[in-house]
Please model this.
Amino acid sequence: MIAFPLGATTTPAELARDPHPRLAELRAHEPVSWLPVLNGWLVTRRDLALDVMRDAETFTVDDPRFTTAQVVGPSMLSLDGAEHTRHREPFAAPFRPREVREGFAEFIDEETDRLLTALEPHGAADLRRDFAGPLAVAVVTKALGLVDADTATVLSWYDAIVRAVSDLTAGHAADPAGPEAYARLRAAVETTVAKGATAAEGATATKGTAAEAEGIEAEAKGSAVAEAEPSTTSLLTAAADRLTLPEVASNAAVLMFGGIETTEAMITNALLHLLRHPDQLALVRADSALLDGAIEESLRLEPGAAVVDRYATRDTTLGRAAIRKGDLVTVSLAGANRDPAVFPDPDRFDVRRDNSRLQLAFAHGPHYCLAAHLARLETRIALRHLLDRLPALRLDPARPTAPQGLVFRKPPALHVRWG
Model:
């Protein structure tokens, strides 16, 4: 094996605390590097990262070592090929751009307003735990249509599952609270599907009776019978028509996991970037059209998920690296997003950067984030409300913060003041 001295001296602590200087060194000198601490390869250059994520036949997620699957079982996140498509398609329709706008915009507006109304009199808050987290949980709960599960309950499940996955990724035993939380989520999914099926049967019977009555009346009047409107069902109930209940539950966990993690991190990191850069915040306040640019720049600089894992299905070459069948190949989205070959002055937060949407925070290829449109909409509405309602919003100087995490990166808290 070619020597990879930078990879050999890279530590988990620096990757979790402030990875960007080391990622820049790796990208410049060892863009595909062997890291003993990962027992695998780390890819930091954007073009090579795209090569890995586009080629699911050579670099797969379908491996027993995939940590999320160890906690919640096989799902769209941990399968490739036809099985990946079979798991993903039943959940895709509500997350298309038009459906997202029509199905969620009003709810997000109302939920954002409710949360801010409760916070506003206090003059200070931890906007990660008091705002971004609850908003993300509320939207995911609505998206899944979970019954008998309030925001606090869903958030507790999510926290436990994230801890378990993070433990496994770091090479430790999973916190047993993770599988226990997943078991409770699975029970809630089964309850939701059962109630949805019962409601759908009842609606069908009611419509059948009504249609029969209308038919009799129409026959008497000599006119045609209009078809009944199709009944609506929850996302989970609809998915259960094509997947088994354990499969529905596994994918619900992935959607919950990704929806909360991605959006909470997006909102929190974007706020931190804006508040740390008053000049950029002033530009956004003066021109609301720049808000989308601020969101994309924040995603580029600090993606909520810093890495994605793949496993080589055959011997292959990537850059200068001779990768063997079975090797772990970790793509650093954080590294790829600061590639100076694509993003000049890559460490600068610039809300007017013209190509920031080329960032890879939502991954790429067949595993591109299913709910990316929803996450963007949620973040846009949340930031707009915050900036409109709290014009004096600022970081609390007594409680500084920064993104942390080896896999999932966001501030542990975001303490702010206003007024």
User: Anything to note?
Assistant: The mean pLDDT is 90. The radius of gyration is 23 Å. The chain is about 55% helix and 10% strand. The longest strand covers residues 307-312.
